[in-house]
Design brief:
The protein has about 325 residues and is α/β, with parallel strands linked by helices. It has 13 helices and eight strands. About 50% of the residues lie in helices and about 10% in strands. α2 runs parallel beside α13, α3 packs across α13 and α5 crosses α7.
Amino acid sequence: MVSDPGSVPPLDQSGTRESHPPTHTGLSEEPGVLEQATALDSAQRAGQASAAAAVAAEADDHPDGPEGGDGAPPDLTAAAFFDCDNTMMVGASIFHFARGLAARKFFTTSDMAGFAWQQIKFRVGGREDKGGIAGHRDTALSFVAGRPVDEVVALGEEIYDELMSDRIWAGTRALAQMHLDAGQRVWLVTATPIELARIIARRLGLTGALGTVAESVDGLYTGRLVGEILHGPAKAHAVRALAAAEGLDLRRCTAYSDSVNDVPMLSAVGTAVAVNPDSELRDVAKARNWQIRDFRTGRKAARIGVPSVLGAGAVAGAVAAGMAYRKR
């Protein structure tokens, strides 16, 4: 569970705990510069908070330290990082979670359809402004404000069984198992709330998960995020922070994703693999000689095309912002 971020100091570049978030001075007042710096700080905070939560969860789940795969000694400096949506799972995990919450009357299915449609227009039509993105970040997950973390986790367990367990890509799951069998640790890295991400990782037998951290105090959600949604550069910050804390050599690590939005994470490791890639990531992978694995065929590939365009962060932002709107 994620506690008040004040009780879990973030990780710095060396993997040590900081008593206070890093500060930045000497910023120009030129329009756009402060805005960019604020966005960077937010991405760093999101990455550090996610890594801190992952380290704490691993200590709870594996108190005796890393375990190797069947018959393999632990490989302590190599690991694999898997995006979730359209990489490990067909579609967006946060969208499946939202469907399950809608069925439980957290909000209506028509609201959810409207949120998704608005996000399609934003992404395809290019009309997503910076103010809108900031609003999504600031209000994301406010629909759970005041609710117990344990309640949401219990619902996540149920919804995984109902709507997610049969949507795992067998090919991607086999890649993850390959790393586990080699004694390496495997983490999901996703914009999905970290509690849900941990459920998915545990059900798949993975080491753990890096996900979006929602602030909670005394076991209750405040409705605020720590930093921002774990998306784009924030994922790379999370991977680097976790590597520093766990003693990983990123040159020996591998990352997998379907989306061009994850190029920062893919570029942070020694081996990058494009899985079920969108057209932009496919072009980047070819240009950089990255491996490409595509487990889609024919109509199935076409059917998941729109979620690929949306991207994990986009869907998370749309659903989370819509949930906040519904609450207001």
